[in-house]
Design a protein that fits this description.
Elements: E1 9-13, H1 18-29, E2 33-37, E3 45-48, E4 51-54, H2 59-68, E5 72-75, H3 83-97, E6 102-105, H4 120-148, E7 151-156, H5 170-174, H6 178-198, E8 203-209, H7 232-241, E9 254-256, H8 259-264, H9 297-300
Helix pairs in contact: 1-2, 1-7, 3-4, 4-6
Domain Ketoreductase: 8-211
GO molecular function: 3-oxoacyl-[acyl-carrier-protein] reductase (NADPH) activity
Protein name: 3-oxoacyl-[acyl-carrier-protein] reductase MabA
């Protein structure tokens, strides 16, 4: 067990499986008390195109993995699409752990459809999960971070939120990710703007997204066959890197999980922190609009960003 986050509490939404589970494990391995959260304690269904599919993974399993590695986890269920549940999630986090230092907005609901066929219900649900919920949870967390004199918010972004590669790839013509990507683009800009608002409060706000894609139970149906994916450890390590420096030194970044470690020579560890993994160079076909250092113009002009 490391100690970079000793004494801190981290809330990771959507941590029953996949990316959220990996992030929760890595933060716990550095000494944080991690609140793992999902809609329920059991296996939760995912509904896409009006079809429900049960996905493997529960918050209790995540909690058990953390505690087996010597960490501490607290389970709090909440539906982030429910305003009352969002408020309760933050309140109970503070009640049960005494504080809230780190918020990782990871939970989401990706239901792809080309714009001409997308229902308004799917559109609204996408906005709710990927923009309204991070906004509301961040807003609820701020008083606790301000009272502590420091805080870290990490929003999980996506390379789809960057400009599509031109000439347009065949994938972009029918993948149906336009609204999802639009919300991720909005989340990037929200994060950069919020970073500027909070830098004087010593609260850092950053974005971490996969450089390619991560094969998770929820993403498996959306990733084309043969698409090159990346291990979750690289994203989890990049999230950790966004939670250890004061806002004056590291805020307002839009980072990606292969590019940032490669550019900064960041050591990437296993989820339990016990070993160092090989360095992975971002593939040549990655979106060329990714900035390896993650520095965006919005905040870079106002603060020293490292």
């Amino acid at each position: 067990m490391g100690s970079a986050l000793a004494g801190k509490t981290a809330l990771v939404t959507g941590s029953s499986r996949g990316i959220g589970r990996g992030i929760a494990q890595r933060l716990a391995a550095e000494g944080a008390t991690v609140v793992v959260s999902a809609r329920s304690r059991g296996v939760s269904p995912s509904v896409r195109a009006d079809t429900a599919t049960s996905l493997a993974g529960t918050v209790d399993e995540t909690s058990a993995l953390i505690e087996a590695a010597g960490g501490r986890a607290v389970v709090i269920t909440a539906d982030i699409s429910d305003p009352a549940d969002r408020e309760r999630l933050v309140r109970e986090t503070v009640e049960q752990t005494g504080r809230l230092d780190i918020l990782v907005n990871n939970a989401g609901y990706a239901d792809y459809s080309v714009v001409s066929d997308m229902s308004m219900a799917t559109f609204d649900r996408t906005v709710e999960h990927y923009l309204r919920a991070p906004f509301a949870l961040s807003q609820a967390a701020l008083p606790h971070m301000r009272s502590a004199g420091a805080g870290w918010i990490v929003n999980i972004g996506s390379s789809t939120g960057l400009d599509p590669i031109r000439p347009f790839r065949e994938y972009n013509k029918d993948a149906g990710d336009v609204i999802y990507a639009s919300m991720k683009a909005a989340l990037h800009r929200f994060s950069q703007g919020l970073a500027a608002e909070l830098v004087d409060d010593n609260i850092a706000v950053n974005v971490v997204g996969p450089s390619t894609a991560i094969m998770t139970p929820g993403a498996a149906a959306l990733i084309p066959e043969g698409f090159e994916t990346e291990p979750v450890e690289y994203l989890a390590e990049t999230v950790l890197a966004m939670c250890v420096q004061p806002a004056s030194e590291r805020t307002g970044l839009v980072t990606f999980s292969l590019h940032y470690p490669w550019d900064t020579e960041l050591d990437v560890h296993s989820l339990d922190g016990s070993s160092v993994l090989p360095r992975l160079e971002p593939p040549s076909w990655s979106n060329p609009n990714i900035r390896p250092d993650g520095i965006g113009e919005t905040v870079a002009a106002r603060v020293s960003v490292g």
